[in-house]
Amino acid sequence: MGPSVTRRYRDIAAWRLGRPLKPWETVHHIDGDHSDDHPDNLRVLSGPRPHALIHWYERREARGVQHLWPLEEWLELHQQK
Ligand SMILES: [Zn+2]
To answer: What pTM did the predictor assign?
Structure first.
């Protein structure tokens, strides 16, 4: 799990981005299926915090919470802090 370990989905995300990933960047599986490494299912995030925020948002959504903001806007709000 350490940053020195090369993971296939990181390579795929880097290919999609057109540049190597920074060590602190994290990759999210958009549909939650970690066996699906299709580029369209991968999202590069600027670090563990926005990644944790997405998972928090999705967990709440799965429990039926009505969010006031769409995910993208909400993430932006939180990343400005
Ligand atoms: Zn994730």
So the answer is: 0.82
Cα of 30 from ligand 1 centre, angstroms = 7
Tell me the CA–centroid distance for residue 16 and ligand 1, in Å: 17
Q: Where in the chain are the domains?
A: 1-45, 48-81
- With a CB cutoff of 8 Å and minimum separation 6, the contacts of 71 are 54, 57
Which helix (H) or strand (E) element contains residue 72?
helix 71-79
pLDDT tens, 13-52?
Answer: 999 999 999 999 999 999 999 999 999 999 999 999 999 9
List the helix and strand counts (H, then E) for the chain.
3, 2
User: Rounded to the nearest whole angstrom, what is the distance from the C-alpha of residue 39 to the centroid of ligand 1?
Assistant: 14
